[in-house]
pectinesterase (Gonapodya prolifera), 351 residues
Amino acid sequence: MRTLSATTHLVSALALALAMVVAALPANVPSSAIVVAKDGSGKFTTLQAAVNSVKQPNTAEVVIYVKAGTYTEQVSIKSDYITIVGDGYASTKITNKLDAKTWQSQNPGASGASAEAGTVKVQGAFFKAFDITFENTATASQAPAFYILGDNMYIENVQFLGWQDTLLSYQGTNQWFYNCYIRGDVDFIWGYGRAIFQNSEFHVGKRPSGSTGNGYIIANGNDGSSHKTSWFLMLDSSISADSGMSAWLGRPWGSAAAGTWQGVYMPSSVPAAGYQPMSSGTPSGTQYYEVIGTNTGPGSSTGNRVKWVHTTNTKSSFSSFFPSAPSWLTSPKKYGASVSKGSGYFSRCCQ
């Protein structure tokens, strides 16, 4: 009778384990993906551990698949070509509770608290994410759920949940957020980047405590000099708000704050004036625009907007807004549900 050696048994067991991991991958996730699973069925149990395993310098795409579950951690990604794929925004969540004041108390003398408190922090180019939620549950002060510092980024079917400063387009150009849900109340889409937010929903939420009843969607940081390319294009999307919340379109963070609203549904919660200044005085250098004849809804009338914002007949397109976008971004390789899902993956409030 022939018997198998211990080595043969080990090789067979490893082959079986590998086959089980590959079989567990959903459609449209490559077999080479690094698997993260809370239950131990993947290679790692945290997203940070998976990120740390990527050898540097990294010059080719690495896909990290995060199985369903709630992962409480702060994640720092300092690598190019990282792609994160979840099991769906309702199933896979990366969450943390950390605000700028708490971070500052933990890091006395350090700077950048309003960014460093972020739940998922990306410093790298060619980043992608699909089918996942990034959340910061802190309510006391600035508490980003996500920030991106890098060029050529694509994010689809991702939910960003926070209150103040939810999503930071820190710096960089060619940042494309598609089919996303972004919730916050104070300046919850902000930064110095050049970004398109397309086919998305901007939800003004009422935080559990301390709400003023006013929510401000964008706060662009263009200052006319070192960040003069910074601009937010809010394209073919919709605004929604919790009961009792005013959904102000934005405040100018930089002296030449720049943003365009085009093809956006604006409910009655958008005040007639549309915008508020960041501080006292008239922000005369602001470059906030609304494209005539494209925005809809009871809050879209521009007749009573503040005098320091503008209207225009000029429409923006992907190619005009991102003239230097590489083919990597113009035709991004997609993973997860985004491969088969079209527009409307998130329920849209009014369209």
